[in-house]
Hints:
Layout: H1 6-24, H2 31-41, H3 48-69, E1 79-81, H4 91-98, E2 134-135, H5 154-171, H6 179-185, H7 198-208, H8 228-231, E3 240-243, H9 249-258, E4 261-265, H10 270-273, E5 275-280, E6 290-300, E7 303-309, E8 321-325, E9 342-345, E10 360-361, E11 367-368, E12 373-380, E13 383-390, E14 396-397, E15 403-405, E16 411-413, E17 418-420, E18 433-434, E19 436-437, H11 446-452
Parallel strand pairs: 5-8
Antiparallel strand pairs: 1-5, 2-6, 3-9, 4-6, 6-7, 7-8, 10-11, 12-13, 14-15, 15-19, 16-17, 17-18
Helix pairs in contact: 1-3, 5-6, 5-7
Amino acid sequence: MVFVSYLTLLLLAAAVAADGASGGGGLAEYEAQFEAWCAEHGKSYATPGERVARLAVFADNAAFAAAHNAGGNGASASYTLALNAFADLTHDEFRAARLGRLAVAGPRYVAAGSLRSAPFLGLDGGVGAVPDALDWRQSGAVTKVKDQGSCGACWSFSATGAIEGINKIKTGSLISLSEQELIDCDRSYNTGCGGGLMDYAYNFVIKNGGIDSEDDYPYRQTDGTCNKNKLKRRVVKIDGYTDVPPNNEDLLLQAVAQQPVSVGICGSARAFQLYSKGIFDGPCPTSLDHAVLIVGYGSEGGKDYWIVKNSWGESWGMKGYMYMHRNAGDSKGVCGINEMPSFPTKTSPNPPPSPGPGPTKCSILTYCPEGSTCCCSWRVLGLCLSWSCCDLDNAVCCKDNRYCCPHEYPICDTTSKQCFKGNNGNFSAMEGVSKKQSFSKAPSWDGLLQLLDL
Length: 454
C-alpha cells in the first residue's frame, strides 16, 4: 500500500476541522458515518493519530460525493458516487495503488515474434448487423469480478477476462484463468505488478501453448518467481489476437458483439474512485493508465453505454462493474476507452488435461508426495543419507535441515522461524511469512513401490 506522509494527513485533518469551526460541519459531522463505514468494510487503524487522519480523508471524500450527487459544480446527473471501500484513501493514494501501470506510452509496440493478426475490420467486412443491446454475462462468458489489490497488474486481469470469454464462446466451458502466471512468467515485455499490456500477454499465452487455471496457480497480489512446472498445466489455448483500429467506436461495437474485448482507459478522474452506479460520462482525461474489459453494451434513458468489468472487487461500482458513456461525441471515447481495444482469437481445441506430476523423486529409493519438495535432513561428505518432505511445491530448504520456505520467500531466518523476500541482501519483517517444518511428512517409499508395481 502506498501512503502519503503522516504530516500531510494531519494537515488535512486540521483543515477539515477548521472548516467545521467556520460552519462546514467538521470531523464530528462524519464520525458516526465513519464508524459505520469501518464496520462495514472491516477497517481498523494502528494508532489514534492514524484513525483521525483517515477520518479526515473520509470526510473530504464524503463531502465530494455529496456535492456531486447534489449536482454541485456542474456534476453529471447520469451517475452517482458512494463511500465505497476506497473512501479512506486520498485520491493520490488511490491512483498510486491502483493506476498508472499500463504500458501504453506512445504507439502500440509489437513484440518480437508477435502473432498478432491483421487489424479488425468488423463483422462480415464491417457490414454485419449487431443487436441493439448485449451482455456477455447473460451468456455465461464472464467470470466473477476479481480484485487486483495494490498490485498494478490490471493488464493481466483484462487479458484473462478476454481469454475466458472467447474460450466459453468457442467451447462452452467457463474457466477462471491465472493472472499470477502472467505476472510471474510473462516477463519479456510485461513487468508484473509494475505494469504491462494485454497484447503482450496474449502473445505469451500463444507461445506457451496455453495458460493455467486460477485454481491451480492462484493470485497473490504480488510479484513472484515463475513456477515453471505450472507453465505446462495448460487448460485454455488461444491462436492469435487482433487489435481494433484506435478511435473507431463502430468497429469496437462490432468487436464486442462477437466477444468480450480488452481496453485501456484513464481511471484518474476523482469521481472514478467513488463511482457507485449509473452511466459514467466524466469529466475524465484520456491518458490511459488502467485496463478493463468490455463485456457488453446497452442504452438507458436515451443514453448509450458500455458494460465495463473492472478488477477492484465487488465493493466498487455496481458489484465491480461500471456503465461508461458510449457515443459521447469524442472519437477517443470517455476516458479514452476507444483508443486501444484488442481481443484474442481461438480456433484450436484446448490442450488435453495435463497429467499429474506424480511423486517427487528425492533419490533412487526415496520419494515425497506429489506437490511437495524433498529436503535433505542428513548429509555426509556431500551425500544425502536421509530425506524429509516439505509440504510446499517448489520450496526452498533451509540450512538448519528443519524448515522450508515458499519459493517466493527464499530467505530463511532460523532465529525468528520466518521466511523473507530478498532486497539487496537485506530483508524486512514486514515481508515475512512463517516457515513450515520440513519434517511434516516422512519420506515416502510408496511412489517407488507403485512404479515397480510391487
